[in-house]
Amino acid sequence: MLPQALRVNIPEIDHEHNELFAFLEGFKEYCFDRSPMPEDRRNALYELLVSHFKTEERLAIAVSMDFSGHEEAHENMLDTVSQTLNQMASNNSDLYSLIRYIGYWFEMHILRYDLTLAKCLAISTHQ
Ligand SMILES: [Fe+2]
Asked: What is the pLDDT of residues 45-103, one digit of tens each?
């Protein structure tokens, strides 16, 4: 469940953030498993991130917001996650670090970027 302080009050974004946090919780069970993370689970996480970032991009474009810095933050994060997920094809020892990285990244990212996006969206719907 998404902490209250990380809600941006744009239902579509909050819903997807919640979904991501819940998905990450489900990943923790693999930390106790010695076998590598199944490929479909790794792909599902990556696709969930890509799809969520596309949602934010679509919303930003709809209100003509400059999204370049925000988009770069998404791309850098996807690069890091993708590299780590690829390593996990043979070994999931970094899994707990990855889960913590993504959780921490989202906390910082929501406060730095998504709240600004949400403010722009809120202003444009009240105009
Ligand atoms: Fe974002």
From this structure: 999 999 999 999 999 999 999 999 999 999 999 999 999 988 887 777 788 889 999 99
What is the Cα–Cα distance from 84 to 98, expressed in whole angstroms?
Answer: 7
Ligand 1 centroid, distance to 82 Cα (angstroms): 17
Nearest residue to 39 (alpha-carbon basis) of 89, 5, 2, 3: 89
Q: What is the pTM of this model?
A: 0.92
Domains of the chain: 4-125 (1.20.120.50)
Ligand 1 center from residue 93 Cα (angstroms): 27
Q: Judge whether 94 and 88 are in contact, CB under 8 Å.
A: yes
